[in-house]
Design goal:
Blueprint: H1 5-13, E1 46-49, E2 62-69, E3 75-83, E4 86-91, E5 94-99, E6 105-109, E7 124-131, E8 136-143, H2 149-172, E9 196-205, E10 208-220, E11 223-229, E12 237-243, E13 249-251, E14 259-262, E15 265-268, H3 272-290, H4 298-314, H5 368-378, E16 382-383, H6 398-407, E17 424-425
Antiparallel strand pairs: 1-10, 2-3, 2-8, 3-4, 4-5, 6-7, 7-8, 8-16, 9-10, 9-15, 10-11, 11-12, 13-14, 13-17, 14-15
């Protein structure tokens, strides 16, 4: 069964602007069988441009009027156009467009304030689109009277769901086909203490995101570690992240957001289920360290791996790989630490086609990253510190968030919301494996 080819083509190519967008047909819909493993030889790793100035694809999958809340107490009506890989709107006669990256989130928020012009912000059902690695955030709202409060809540919920689906699609499009692995690679000694391994997206800097193969090791002496390889062959180690009982490990709180951080490293998983699995496994290692548990024996490692595999088996649908699709971000010409290939050739081995050449900048077109500074001055973009371990919501309405998610449950069965507005610790995310 092929479920992605037709709707994905329509979303990108846009057969009809008036067609209804059905996000459930695009994201979180998988083939019945696992995709065949990639047979191309692997050299190095994939890197993508994570900037916000990439072209938006096709025609909008949704358009509508929303109120834009500014830092200068301005509330302006704009038409927001949502694309399969970003969004655009016009403000004060100037069009602004922003492509999405895996390191972005959307969620509901609520303000209890009145502007200098006497506009009560509590009359708006608001949500935020945070491009947190770029230090920018946009607040949009649906105005509601008491008689129209339910309709406004549903309208906000639909926008939040559609934007979160676009973010998920961008993220999933960057991963090569793979399955979570527990067994070590026989020919690689370093993998013999593997508990859990799989591809993760790593935030390298504001402009680059890399697909790296990560492997969790259990406690040994006073620490565990996350070993990061170029790819699943595990021939080249990119870095090792030490995990101690005091290591900070938390998730980014957003609707369908799959981002989490370990110390200063920010990652994104392919699915929400994979993020939960990684966080729970890392939390288990920290608990072992806190209790001064000895390094596990070979038999204990076998038991741990069996528990992880059993968890994956019990939730098989949530761990299925996505059908192959084109990456929705441009390839970055970053060279692998091992490739030694000419810059015009395939550098990373997952794809057989060479990366597309970046478009030459138009002198008449303003730099989009530079626009963030201008945007902040003009008031529609609110700066946020990148890679903050917590991401507070402005007086988040917990009950309203839950109500919105309940109303949307039929359209998005896998939608998950954490309305605490705080960075959730890795512990207590799910029943622990041994």
């Amino acid at each position: 069964m092929s479920v992605l080819s037709t709707p994905l083509c329509r979303c990108i190519c846009g057969s009809n602007r008036s067609d209804d967008f059905d996000p459930s047909r695009v994201v979180d819909a998988f083939a019945d069988d696992e995709p065949p493993p990639c047979t191309a030889p692997m050299h190095g790793y994939l890197s993508y441009c994570a900037t916000t100035d990439q072209p938006l694809r096709g025609v909008p999958i949704r358009e509508g009027g929303l109120w834009l809340l500014s830092a200068e107490e301005e509330v302006a009506m704009v038409t927001l156009s949502l694309y399969v890989n970003g969004f655009a709107f016009t403000h004060k006669g100037r069009e602004h467009s922003f492509s999405l990256s895996p390191f972005a989130l959307v969620r509901n928020c609520k303000f209890q304030a009145t502007t200098s012009e006497g506009i009560d912000l509590s009359d708006f059902k608001c949500f935020k689109v945070s491009l947190f690695t770029q230090g920018a955030c946009f607040y949009f709202g649906v105005r509601a009277t008491k008689a129209e409060e339910r309709e406004a809540e549903e309208e906000r919920s639909r926008w939040v769901i559609d934007i979160s689906r676009a973010m998920r699609l961008v993220t999933q499009s960057l991963f090569p086909p793979f399955s979570i692995a527990c067994e070590p690679v026989d020919t690689v000694a370093l993998t013999q203490r593997r508990l859990l391994a799989g591809y993760l997206l790593h935030h390298d800097d504001m402009t680059i995101a890399s697909v790296l193969f990560c492997e969790l090791h259990p406690q040994g002496r006073d620490h565990g570690k996350l070993v990061v390889y170029e790819n699943e062959t595990c021939q080249v180690v990119v870095m090792e992240i030490c995990i101690t009982e005091r290591s900070t490990c938390c998730e980014k709180v957003g609707i369908s957001c799959s981002c989490f951080s370990i110390e200063d490293h920010l990652f994104s998983t392919r699915t929400l289920a994979e993020r939960k699995l990684w966080l729970r496994a890392i939390s288990n290692v920290k608990v072992k360290l806190q209790n001064r548990a000895p390094s596990p024996t070979r038999e204990e490692l076998v038991d741990y791996r069996h528990a992880i595999r059993e968890h994956i088996r019990m939730s098989k649908a949530a761990f299925q790989g996505q059908a192959p699709m084109d990456a929705l971000l441009h390839r970055h010409p970053k060279r692998s630490t091992q490739s030694g290939m000419d810059g015009g050739e395939e550098l990373r081995g997952f794809l057989l086609a060479p990366p597309p050449a970046p478009a030459a900048p138009d002198p008449a077109e303003p730099n989009k990253l530079g626009d963030f500074g201008e945007a902040a001055k003009s008031g529609f973009a609110h700066g946020e510190p990148p890679l903050s371990p917590s991401d507070p919501v402005e007086a988040e309405g917990t009950e309203e968030a839950r109500a919105a998610m309940s109303a949307a449950a039929g359209a998005s069965p896998r939608l998950e919301a954490n309305s605490s507005g705080r960075c959730a610790p890795a512990s207590n995310l799910a029943p622990r494996t041994p």
